[in-house]
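user: can you give me the structure for this one chain? tokens are fine.
assistant: on it. calling the predictor now.
[tool input]
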Amino acid sequence: MRDHDAQPVGGIARRLANILTARGIDPTASPSAAPEPLPALQAAEARIPERYQAAVADHPAITAWVREVARAGRPGPGGAPGIAQGRSLLIVGTTGTGKTHQAYGAVRCLITAGVRLRWKATTAADLYADLRPRPGHDGERELMDMARCPLLIIDDLGAAKSSEWTEEITTRLINRRYNEMLPTLITTNLGMADLRDYIGDRVASRLTEMTDKVILDGPDRRRAIAAERRRLAAAA
């Protein structure tokens, strides 16, 4: 059977074709195969720092974690899975190896996979600053909201100055998420021995059990990008 170009048939089809033509639309054109943007992904990207809005998680251990979390999600409205419980990730590496990029990339991958996702992200320094007691601020309520959030990103754990108070906050937050088995993405520049000294034995023990450790190595990507910019500028 020979294929023919589509031809509108009947009065209704002819009127529809005329309307489309008047609007500058070819009624015989094939529909575009381009996927519609995901509203959930667009909403998430509005909350992701601009530098990481196109982040892609491409480390095998992190993509495996995304698949595991997506499979374990409980069906919700419309049948889409939502995060219930799951393993956490401890992403370790020196400065500039892409830890934050991979963490935000994991969030984008989960949403692209259709996971209904309520999540929060903070740096450790901002976490302590936001929770520090001050008039008119309910730090306890905010701490509990973070502790119960289905997915939490804590970036740069170990970068802020340590004190008894910060250690207590970290212990309470991690212990609550450990007990409820809620996925947490933690990035740090510290090795496990230094991290243990920073957060204490109790939290370090829980992190050892609740997380899969991902080590990122290689040169400082930020320095490499800056050097490439300088090289291109000198060659121009």
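assistant: here you go. The longest helix spans residues 164-180. The beta strands are 74-75, 81-82, 88-93, 119-123, 151-155, 184-188, 211-216.
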